[in-house]
Specification:
It contains five helices and no strands. The protein is an all-alpha fold and 150 residues long.
Length: 150
């Protein structure tokens, strides 16, 4: 079942990450606008600097999530495990979602926690379903002991 379900799960995870990227940009745009309109400052930092910082953080986080989504789309299209860089990026994305999920419980509530854990589960499912990308023939050949001739 894992081989059959891994392509749709990769597609779903990619779509979820792109939608999450859009949400991150929208939330940071809202925060930037509120800070700019209220002329808030933190420890003397200018409000326009905080507003620009919110925009930059939102765009960088969205780019990161879209890059993760691109790796997932490539996995779904090629039906192969990602390379070393792709695997590292997707694992780091899973770790980020795990940490954000843990923080979300206390700061935002259980619904935000469930959302983060669902994305984490999708990422882990894709990574486990695709495995290391090593063909089975090589894996089986490496596991078999060499034949001893007399």
């Amino acid at each position: 079942m894992g081989v059959v379900a891994r392509r749709p799960v990769a597609w779903v995870a990619a779509v979820v990450l792109v939608l999450e990227a859009l949400g991150v940009v929208l939330v940071n745009a809202l925060l930037a606008e509120v800070v700019d309109n209220q002329h808030m400052s933190l420890a003397g930092l200018a409000s326009n600097a905080m507003s620009r910082g919110a925009w930059v953080l939102g765009v960088l986080a969205a780019v990161y999530l879209v890059v993760c989504g691109v790796f997932l789309v490539r996995m779904a299209l090629r039906n192969r495990a990602p390379g070393r860089v792709g695997r590292i990026v997707l694992i780091s994305c899973a770790v980020v979602h795990g940490v954000l999920g843990a923080l979300a419980v206390g700061l935002l509530g259980w619904l935000a926690f469930v959302a983060m854990v669902v994305v984490l589960a999708l990422l882990v499912w894709v990574l486990v379903a695709y495995g290391t990308g090593e063909p089975e023939s090589r894996a089986v050949a490496a596991a078999e002991p060499p034949a001893v001739s007399a």
